[in-house]
Amino acid sequence: MAADLEVVNLFIIAGGTLAIPILAFVASFLLWPSALIKVYYWYWRRTLGLQVRYADCGGYRFCYACRGKPGMRPSILMLHGFSAHKDTWLSVVKYLPKHLHIVCVDMPGHEGTTRTNTEDYSIQGQVKRIHQFVETIHLNRKPFHVVGTSMGGNVAGVYAACYQKEICSMTLICPDGIRHPCETKFDNHLQDLEHSNYTLNIPLIPTTPEEMEDMFRLCSHVRFKIPQQILQGLVDVRQPHNTFYEKVFMEIVGEPSRYALQEHLHLITAPLQVIWGKKDQVVDVSGAAVIAEVLPGCRVDLLENCGHSVVMERPCRTAKLILEFIILQQDTRGGTKKSY
Fold it and tell me: Which of 121, 141, 224, 279 is 20–30 Å from 22 (CA)?
């Protein structure tokens, strides 16, 4: 009987011990979902071997995550989209070889990178800042591969046009900055915004869990089931930055940023890969044909049943396509097959 009581006591103690972290997790999920989201990203970066670092230049600080070291193969610089952050790329980095040198930077004013009221957040202004970042961490000691999605794709393309010698190859994922011949659902929203003199809510700047869910429906063809608490957490994380997001949005939809990529396409000399979701409701997939017409040598990969959030919807496929393209370009230049 005594032994049985000891066993019972042991289970009670063990159960109580386990209950503490479980209750803490549940409390965080219900009461502080935004904190839980930050912990989630921290844990994922740690699991993937990414380190968060800072680069200071003349009072301006860039925040970035990196893995690996520069080597024989080109480094990869990854530029996220509007109102996102460096952790956008975690799902893709997961499927890239660990020995590749990867750099995911917070775009100007986003997340951990310096934000100022006087900053130029136009596409051209962001290109200048990213070049400052590249020089600060000496990424351009040898040509590197740049990847950009959405707004980041616009910036990446203009960067490649302005700093041709620094880029060995590039991947643009559903880039904006193109006059696509077919209108999208977002184009209709944009027209409504313009007619209202931008007094209506901007679909890409949600302020409630319901608007956050609407944004996911707009940006993603794949329907993710996201708990209400997580939606609220995402809203809470973004809420303090919404005024800044509005400022950036007005910059990138205005002149001369709106079609900056298209206006610089003829200056791009690096091998180009374009990845696009066929069901993109933000930037129509017809933009891929516009790019291919100006740069007929580019590689175009169109993804079935995929929307604007290619990185989130098809991370494994995206990583595989990028890696295949880099290997192909290295083999073409070097004449020998390299192991990745």
Answer: 224
